[in-house]
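Lecture 7, part 2: worked example. A protein chain together with manganese (II) ion.
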Amino acid sequence: MPLDEYNKLRDFSKSPEPKGSVKPHAGNIFVVHEHDARHLHYDLRLEMGGVLRSWAVPKEPPVKEGEKRLAIQTEDHPLEYADFEGTIPEGMYGAGAVRIWDKGEFILESEKDNELLFELRGKKLTGRYAMIKTRFKGKDSWLFFKRK
Ligand code: MN
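Predicted complex, written out as structure tokens:
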């Protein structure tokens, strides 16, 4: 099931994160969380197939053409996570403060196993983007960048 890994990694009696479930919904949300964990990073989440497909981006997401960012795909998150802000307690998976860095509309243009083309309409991220699978850092690594 799509959220099994998400649920398995968390103890909802201790973490304020939403438990959530898969929602059949033709979605169009994107959100970027700034996550002040052991290493500050950004989590890009795109609503696809009733969940938020998620990537951890070690550096600030690209706002200009020509900036390429490594993005490591992580477990799918429930749609409720799009509104989540809070602090995950010490000792928990992903411990640290989570804040919404940007959020808006996500328009999927095309989807292949190794390539997503989409438009983002947020406050900071706006325009046409691509997510392309790469072998640079293992099987979950992608390149995230802004297109012309
Ligand atoms: Mn994270």
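The longest helix spans residues 4-8. The chain has one helix and nine strands. Keep this in mind for problem set question 3.
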